[in-house]
Amino acid sequence: MLTRLGLIAALSLGTATIAMAQDATPTDGGKLVFTAPYGNSITSLDITATPHTQDEIVAKALNRSLYKWNPEKGQPELDLAESVEKSDDGKTYTYKLKEATFHNGDKLDADDVLWSYNRLADPKKALPGAEQMLQIAGVSEFQAGTADQISGLKKIDDMTVEITVTNLADPGWNLMSNYAPIYSKDYAEDQLASKPNGLGPFKMANYVAGSKIELVKFEDYFEEGKPHLDKLDIMLMGEASARDVAFRNGEIDVNILGPVQYEAYGQDDALKDNILEVAEVYTRNIGFNPKVEAFQDKRVRQAINYAINKDLIVEKLLKNKAYPAVSWLPVSSPAFDRNAEPYAYDPEKSKELLKEAGYETGLSFSVTATPNESWGVPIVEAIIPMLSKVGVQVTTDPVESAVLSDKILSDNFETFIWSNSSGPDALKYLTCFYSKTSQTACNYVKFSNPEFDKLVEQAGSETDPAKQADILRQANNVLQEEAPVWFFNYNKAVMAYQPWVHGLKPNSMELAIQDYEDIWIDADAPASRK
Amino acid sequence: MLRFILRRTLQIIPTLLVVVLIIFVIFSVVPGSFISSLMSEGRNATNADVMAHLNQQFGLDKPLLVRLGDYLWGLAQFDLGISYRTREPVWNVIEPRLWPSIKLALAAMFFAAIIGIPLGFIAALKPGSMIDSGTMMLAISGLSLPEFWFGLLLMYVFALQLGWLPSFGYQADSIRHIILPAIALGVSPMALLARTTRAGVLDVMNADFVRTARAKGLSEPRLVRGHVARNVLVLVLTTLGLQVGSLMGQAIVIEKLFSWPGIGSLLVDSVAARDIPVVQGAVIVIVLWFLVINMLVDVAYAAIDPRIKVT
Amino acid sequence: MRLRFNLVLGLLLAAIVIIAGVFAAWIAPYHPIIDADLMNSEMPPSWEHWMGTDGQGRDVFSRVLYGAQVSLTVGLVSQLINSCIGTALGVSAGYFGGWWDDLVNGLTNVMLAIPSLVFALAIMAVLGPGLPSLLIALGLTNWSWTCRIARSSTLSLKNQGFVQAAKVAGFGDGNIMRTQILPNIIGPVLVMATLGIGGAVLAEAALSFLGVGIRPPQPSWGNMLTDARELLRAAPWAAVFPGLAIFITVLGFNLLGDGMRDLLDPHMRTRRA
Questions:
Q1: Statement: A281-490 belongs to CATH 3.40.50.1820
Q2: I need a labelling partner for A254 at 20 to 30 A (CA). Which of B26, B265, C108, C141 fits?
Q3: What pLDDT does residue B225 have?
Q4: Angstrom distance (rounded) from CA C273 to CA C267
């Protein structure tokens, strides 16, 4: 695999308001009341024990990793290391660590890095962050139990670490993960879940499980002059209607918006100037299980794509808080084909195709869906009348999110509607449709197409990024033609913020994850934030 | 009396056992697992090895009966097990939620009592009159609103429009934060109390000793204050107690809406994540609270009214 | 005797809801699912759409009418199940006494102790959303009060003359319970059931809020309210009318139940006579 260049900078479709906000000089002090919108609780204060975005929102304040994601440039960059040297074969990286202090006063050294990565990879600990370690040489032997240590991790001296990886891809993409932070080796492991100890800009002050996390500025944070804020509260608020009231009431400083609120805020003079939008790298789709005989016929899959007026759904139901999808890769992807047209809304064509395929009447299927407003039951409700016009009967199979993934992984569905990562790494996410990728990995619709396979294999061995993008573009077009899913939309994430908040970034990976150390509030903030 | 308390305490054990069994059976057949909940966001594909190790670590690969046995054996030693999600002892997860839950239940009850009891009295003074109908309609109206709906309305009116109160959240030392959730939760017990009070007052009014007093020419207000109030008190206290006992489990929706860190929202989150040990623990706590409060009510009942035979 | 205002009002409201539900297919101007027009979503009330349209462009009035079917089915059937279970257990426990009585008592305590919403939530998680699951979940979880009432009534009836007489006359236990005891406790059980209907309708709304109610796009008042909770500003009618429908129904059945209780209550009878 390859480094992905800065092409992904195109992802950052931030609005002009943010640029303005950053023109001013930051002032220090004050309090920010942030929200974690994906539930009413977090799982653990130890981010290595959980794979949830909700937890990541908190972890971003507490911890630091070797690299970090730069939302403006759209690529990983060094965080805890001041420099890195790459060997001639492109597989060995030597990092010079920065001087940094943990919240408990411990100093960062090479052993902390080794300890943290060993712990993450340790199969006995069964940590979800193990995923990020797989690129490091020797991890598979370590996990299989044939090696005591990870051979690809070496301490050169107290402040120098050498990491060997198994392929040509930049390890920054894995090691920037907030799920792979550096912890102190001398800190009791069993304390991490309740009394976290990280290198992040804020440290824990008060945790009310199920309600909020109060953090205070860490004075010894390694970046000079940061963070700007004295205090950071993160409110755990899963209920969008309650968040709306709280935001309008000035009780919270940021609010991740759903479609309805996106429209309402855009029409409200008091709110419309302080909205941050970004094209996130998720593709919403309905996956067709080839287990259902009709879906083995390309014409049926295409017919469904023709029968649904997705522009109308995006406009009316999602209030334009999404981009209608063309194929799998999102608009911002370097391999996105700017000339490609999405499936048009054409019920006649759809009927024709269904007739050809022999499903003029009598095709019916269920859609397994969660309650999510942008890629769940409400969307299925909208396509039911549309598909009934071409003679296709659709029913809903409403499930909780834990059951959705369970049903998909166990092949127990006819179709599902889901939101899946489709970037920033185009090759990685197209590989999900490679015939040898298992259903439990991410080939949920068991897609298998020789032409597509060949293109993916070619792209994998191509070292020139432009050429690789070209091949992937072709693969993406094959995918569109084959229509293994109904291509619905690419997400547009939207965050509203109070006028006194500055320094938010258009993070296309996940807008709710912000670099707190760069956020500051101005003199217009109300007294409760001072 | 001591024997009574002892007997009631011992009765708690089989009840709890059955509850544990029911929850265990239900969640052993429920679709979805803790492992699949880790995948639910569809982005951080969890490694298959990690899943297998997790299953092993939490003993999910053992047969059902062995798991039940292990759980009961732990329970006998007051060990609620380890939470799948946080990997901490379940008690550490539940304990911080207890006090907010109790506080909300008591506050809701307080609201219910100061509104419901007077309403019931007023209604009972002239049964069948427009005042009776009116107050009872008012009380029953309280029973007739979906609670999340009522909660949202309260937020809109008192937080957003009037700006009097915070719309959400929990602050250990703040009374302002508890008012809206307490009202939203208390409105249905309020209606119940109003009804019970009304019925109780009517009952007592018809009792012989009141008729005698009335015949002796006591005025109605004095009658109400003197004879009736004392006798209705017992009934009202019982209802109050029973309601406090069940409010902890009824607060789920309100807690979610107001980001209140109680047992109810913990329970829902744990069900969604299939964190079965925490679900078990939370249900046990809710049930225990109910049983203990009930026992206390019975004891108090017996203490107030010596005619009740305690066996 | 004064006009029993509450009882009459309760009857009236309940009748309106029942008529709306039963004749939904004839009254409703639109199909509640298929007649969706996204182009005309979130339209305010008008001549075409008396209660406006919802976020999907469906006619709120039609959905409220069809929703009455679901809510009434949930209310009536779940209470029927509850009453049957509660009465059967309560009467038999009171009549036979002994270990059976202890067992039923224990079970009743368990059911009272587990909050019914929690229980229903768990059952819904197992069975999956949908009307049948909802009926089972709400039908199995709310019989304890009925059971208690049936048991205590049976206890006091058991030793009365006519029951003893029937025993002496050689009637079987089942026969006695059916012909002598049941008719005498049917009143209070009916009152409990009527009062419970409102509770079941509300429980459906709460379960919808928690994401495990009726299977969409079938309309129920609970899922209509849940869907519309974010439209409170943009299209308040989509939330107000189903909310009002729930309110009227619960109010109606509660008033009805209360009124029936007053009628059955001997104190009230003597006082009012």
A1: no
A2: B265
A3: 63
A4: 10
How far is it, in rounded angstroms, from Cα B305 to Cα C11?
A: 39
What pLDDT digit, counting tens, does each position of C77-124 carry?
999 999 999 999 999 999 998 899 989 988 898 888 888 888 888 888
- CATH 3.90.76.10 range(s) for chain A read 64-198
Contacts of A258 in chain C (CB under 8 A): 230
Chain B residue closest to C119 (CA)?
B23
Instruction: Select from B149, B192, B204, B291 the residue whose CB has the most chain C CBs within 10 Å, as the one to mutate to test that interface.
Output: B149
Which three-class secondary structure string do you get for A214-250? EEEECCCCCCCCCCCCCEEEEEECCCHHHHHHHHHCC
> Kindly report the CA angle at C42 between C37 and C48, in degrees rounded to 5?
65
Residues of chain C with pLDDT under 50: 1-3, 267-273
Q: Cα angle vertex B257, ends B253, B259, to 5°?
A: 110
Kindly list the distances between the CA atom of residue C180 and the CA atoms of B288, C165, C168, C191, in Å, as whole numbers in the listed order: 39, 10, 13, 20
Neighbouring residues of B181: CB distance < 8 A, sequence distance ≥ 6: B104, B107, B108, B151, B254, B255, B257, B258, B260
Cα Dmax for chain B: 86
Whole-complex ipTM: 0.85
Instruction: Report yes or no on C210 lying in a domain.
Output: yes
Domain with CATH 3.10.105.10 in chain A: 281-490
Under 8 Å between Cβ of B268 and B252:
yes
Query: How many angstroms from the chain centroid is the CA of residue A521?
Result: 27
- pTM for the model stands at 0.87
C-chain residues near A381 (CB < 8 A): 33, 36, 56, 216-217
Closest CA to A448 of A409, A486, A478: A478
Asked if B146 and C118 come within 8 Å (Cβ–Cβ), the reply is no
Domains of chain B: 16-90 (no CATH), 92-304 (1.10.3720.10)
Q: Does residue C195 belong to any structural domain of this protein?
A: yes
Which regions in chain A score pLDDT beneath 70? 1-23
Domain that holds residue C255: 2-31+55-267
The SS3 assignment for C35 reads coil
Residue C25 identity (one-letter amino acid): A
| Number of structural domains chain C divides into | 1
Shortest CA gap B264–chain A (Å):
10
**Cβ-based contacts of A397 with chain C (< 8 Å):** 128, 215
Residue C216 distance to chain A (closest CA, Å): 7
**Of B40, B49, B96, which has the smallest distance from its Cβ to A401's Cβ?**
B40
Q: How confident is the model at residue B228 (pLDDT cuts 50, 70, 90)?
A: low
Question: Looking at CA atoms only, how far is residue B233 from chain C in angstroms?
Answer: 20
CATH number at residue C185: 1.10.3720.10
Identify all chain C residues contacting B290, using CB atoms and an 8 Å cutoff: 112-113
Q: Are B185 and C117 in contact (CB under 8 A)?
A: no
Tell the CATH superfamily of the A64-198 domain. Dipeptide-binding Protein; Domain 1 (3.90.76.10)
Which residues in chain B have Cβ-Cβ distances shorter than 8 Å to C270? 206
Q: Tell whether C130 is covered by a domain.
A: yes
Any domain includes C254:
yes
Residue B42 structure tokens: 């569809």
